[in-house]
What does this fold into?
Amino acid sequence: MKRPTKTTTHTLKAECQACNWRSEAGNALGTAAQHHDTYGHQVITRIDREITYGDPHETNGQTTIHDALAEPTEPTATIPPSP
It folds into this structure.
């Protein structure tokens, strides 16, 4: 059985309990640690991860005939021959 399409997203958030400093970025774990090391404040970091299996264009994990026969939406580029 072919595994359906999978997408993964994640969000990192850090929040200082003493001064209300906040960070929401891919490097929030690092900046939270730096904030704690610099100021000694307690910082709570939240990691939210979402994994989705399946594609809304698939039916029961199988690609529909319409999807399999669909024309490309963008024209195909032509690569010129090398000199």
User: Anything to note?
Assistant: The chain is about 20% helix and 35% strand. Residues 1-51 form one domain. The helical segments are 28-39, 65-69. Residues 63-70 have pLDDT under 50 and may be disordered.
